[in-house]
From TrEMBL:
<protein>
    <recommendedName>
        <fullName>Ig-like domain-containing protein</fullName>
    </recommendedName>
</protein>
<keyword id="KW-1015">Disulfide bond</keyword>
<keyword id="KW-1133">Transmembrane helix</keyword>
<keyword id="KW-0732">Signal</keyword>
<dbReference type="GO" id="GO:0006955">
    <property type="term" value="P:immune response"/>
</dbReference>
<keyword id="KW-0393">Immunoglobulin domain</keyword>
<feature type="domain" description="Ig-like">
    <location>
        <begin position="35"/>
        <end position="133"/>
    </location>
</feature>
<dbReference type="GO" id="GO:0042102">
    <property type="term" value="P:positive regulation of T cell proliferation"/>
</dbReference>
<feature type="compositionally biased region" description="Basic and acidic residues">
    <location>
        <begin position="73"/>
        <end position="85"/>
    </location>
</feature>
<keyword id="KW-0675">Receptor</keyword>
<dbReference type="GO" id="GO:0071222">
    <property type="term" value="P:cellular response to lipopolysaccharide"/>
</dbReference>
<dbReference type="GO" id="GO:0007166">
    <property type="term" value="P:cell surface receptor signaling pathway"/>
</dbReference>
<dbReference type="InterPro" id="IPR003599">
    <property type="entry name" value="Ig_sub"/>
</dbReference>
<keyword id="KW-1003">Cell membrane</keyword>
<dbReference type="InterPro" id="IPR007110">
    <property type="entry name" value="Ig-like_dom"/>
</dbReference>
<dbReference type="InterPro" id="IPR051713">
    <property type="entry name" value="T-cell_Activation_Regulation"/>
</dbReference>
<dbReference type="InterPro" id="IPR013106">
    <property type="entry name" value="Ig_V-set"/>
</dbReference>
């Protein structure tokens, strides 16, 4: 006889969780699309959490297609940008009260087309990682006003 593991499915604060006997927790995040024009002052990548925040939490924003993948990290309510990808240096911020408000949204200043991609907001505590949301950021090229002039030849 082979061994089997019993998995219980339940909804917790409108998020889909699967919990097995060995306390492994998986979180199923839904992707959100955010569009912004290149040249805007900033764009907000939303990440609201209404579940249980683990002990000694770290909030991470990452992009898996980059190396290093860290976009922004907040540990114990303070930014920890030592391993931040250099392309985001000086351009990201989170609310200082993020853990109290459960608002882990990321502000990205001066978005460029190369910022387009999938961003993941997750929370870790101990050995557990909760993937809160995936954001698909689409940065569009700058809107340029093109003036069209019609030149009419002068009749003599």
């Amino acid at each position: 006889m082979g061994s089997s593991r019993k998995v219980q499915d339940f909804n917790f604060f409108n998020y889909g969780w699967k919990r097995s006997i060995n306390e492994h927790v998986q979180f199923h995040a839904l992707a959100v699309v955010v569009e912004v024009n290149e040249g805007e002052m900033s764009v907000l990548l939303p990440c609201q959490f209404s579940g249980f925040i683990p002990e000694d939490p770290t909030v991470m924003w990452t992009r898996s297609d980059l190396q290093p993948k860290s976009v922004h990290l907040q540990r114990e309510g303070r930014d920890d940008l030592r391993e931040q990808n250099q392309r985001y240096s000086g351009r990201t911020s989170m609310r200082p009260d993020a853990l109290d408000s459960s608002d882990f949204s990321l502000t990205l200043r001066k978005p460029t087309k190369t910022d387009s991609g999938t961003y993941t907001c997750s929370i870790t505590g101990g050995r557990k990682e909760l993937r809160v949301t995936d954001i698909q950021l689409q940065v569009k090229g700058q809107q340029q006003n093109q003036n069209i002039y019609t030149v009419k030849p002068e009749l003599q």
